[in-house]
């Protein structure tokens, strides 16, 4: 299971990559990407990975793909799903902490 620190590092790496891609090299400030868009992208990538894994399993059962390729695709999909779940859990935990704060 992914630790909160690992999830935070993954988010930081995604922000850094988005800023690098968005920087035209002119040195101007780049607005940080929207957290919702990052989550949506992660969910879309997880769905694609899951569909690829399912496709590889079907191909392997039909004898059209190697077992190791199917296992690798399933493992990749599982890791991505665990990452998304860890991020979701941290967001829920942060929301609950905010709701407990006195006004």
UniProtKB/TrEMBL annotation:
Keywords assigned: Bacterial flagellum, Cell projection, Cilium, Flagellum
GO biological process: bacterial-type flagellum-dependent cell motility
Localization (cell): Bacterial flagellum basal body
Gene Ontology CC, one term: bacterial-type flagellum basal body
GO molecular function annotations of the record: cytoskeletal motor activity; structural molecule activity
Family per similarity comment: Belongs to the FliE family.
HAMAP family: FliE (MF_00724)
Protein known as: Flagellar hook-basal body complex protein FliE
UniProt source species: Asticcacaulis biprosthecium C19
Taxonomic lineage: Bacteria, Pseudomonadati, Pseudomonadota, Alphaproteobacteria, Caulobacterales
């Amino acid at each position: 299971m992914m630790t909160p620190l690992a999830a935070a590092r993954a988010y930081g790496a995604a922000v850094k990559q988005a800023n690098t891609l968005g920087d035209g090299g002119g040195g101007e400030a780049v607005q940080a990407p929207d957290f919702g868009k990052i989550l949506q992208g992660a969910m879309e990538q997880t769905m694609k990975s899951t569909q690829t894994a399912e496709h590889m399993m079907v191909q392997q059962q039909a004898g059209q793909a190697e077992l190791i390729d199917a296992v690798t695709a399933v493992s990749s999909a599982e890791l991505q799903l665990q990452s998304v779940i860890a991020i979701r859990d941290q967001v829920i935990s942060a929301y609950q902490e905010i709701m407990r704060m006195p006004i």
